[in-house]
């Protein structure tokens, strides 16, 4: 899973601002640190959707410093982020991926929708058509 470091900044109105050094479009606030970090996950996913829409490579997380807070992307979202980056690296458009998978475009649109609960098997197939495979580990 992708683990993005965040900066928690206490504000003068007793709230916390969350900034992502790697994804400047993602910002969030909360009444306390816990709420700020919870809101930060939604902010991160919303910012990543911008990258998807603009077909821009998603920056990978930088190294987490000791004691630094983080936001961990869910495994499914991580798989989709890495898939989009691979498609961009290989210059494979959605229409080409649909052709390779022998599916209609709406299925590829859902595949690349961070909020859609795509089956892992379909994501695996997409990686396979790009000459890649998913590796899962428990740490």
UniProtKB/TrEMBL annotation:
Domain HicB-like antitoxin of toxin-antitoxin system: 4-123
Entries under Pfam families matching the protein: HicB_lk_antitox (PF15919)
InterPro entries: HicB-like, TA_system_antitoxin, TTHA1013/TTHA0281-like
Domain of life, per lineage: Bacteria
Name of the molecule in the record: Type II toxin-antitoxin system HicB family antitoxin
Species, as recorded: Advenella mandrilli
Taxonomic path: Bacteria, Pseudomonadati, Pseudomonadota, Betaproteobacteria, Burkholderiales
